[in-house]
Specification:
Length: about 230
């Protein structure tokens, strides 16, 4: 192989690498997680000490209204939102989806079969001031196609509607649409290492990142509404 041909091949490889990296950077530059919140970012919220009153809330299972997936996707996302709201330290988070387990334990304590000093008493469940309801309206593992030159990279997209309801009056006090995609790299209160049942098949895929980014944006919004 002649020296001139060898130099030409090395130069061609460099051009391909530069073009590929440029396209990958361009794909990431346009990605964002959207909510209607105008409050401080998540890292600023984490750094600020919080000693104020905490509102009690409960998250209901999300309904699923997208074309792909099913109700287990909604259940998994509501589980993740519950965990993330608890991890934020801004709210008293109450169990509602599995409340029957708590009631069964109290009934067992009242049956006389449990040591009285350890029995869970009745009449002390806390009521939720706020209810968070959601619905998944978009769930696309591949919402934009890739190409060979960017190694068939794909973008996953999710959109959820969220309503916050005052349980005393039944009024909707906040409603928003939160959108997330796989190209955003936010880090915040979504610390769960494993995806819940219904979402496990997306582990290690662009959809996993889109799920986590959407949940993070939802937590940011709920915190910044300051209800």
């Amino acid at each position: 192989m002649s020296p001139v041909f060898a130099i030409h091949r090395r130069f061609s490889r460099k051009v391909v690498v530069i073009i590929t990296l440029g396209l990958l950077s361009a794909c990431g530059a346009n990605a964002r997680v959207v909510s209607d919140s105008q409050g401080p970012g998540i890292q600023q919220a984490q750094q600020e000490p919080y000693a104020g009153p905490k509102r009690s809330l409960a998250v209901k299972a999300f309904s699923f209204k997208a074309g792909r997936g099913g109700h287990r996707v909604g259940q998994g996302m509501s589980d993740m939102l519950t965990d993330a709201l608890f991890n934020s330290g801004r709210f008293i988070v109450l169990e509602r989806e599995n409340i029957k387990d708590v009631l069964d334990e109290q009934d067992l304590g009242a049956s006389g079969r449990v040591k009285p000093s350890t029995a869970a008493p009745k009449g002390q469940l806390e009521g939720a001031e706020l209810l968070v309801r959601g619905s998944v309206i978009q769930f696309e593992p591949r919402c934009s196609g890739g190409s060979a030159i960017v190694f068939s990279a794909s973008r996953a997209c999710i959109a959820i509607n969220i309503r916050i309801i005052d349980s005393a009056t039944g009024r909707v006090v906040n409603a928003t649409t939160v959108e997330g995609s796989s190209v955003d790299k936010r880090i915040g209160f979504v610390t769960r290492s494993e995806l819940p049942i219904g979402l496990g098949m997306y582990k290690g895929t662009p959809m996993e990142r889109a799920i986590r980014n959407t949940i993070q944006a939802a937590v940011d919004h709920i915190i910044n509404t300051k209800l």
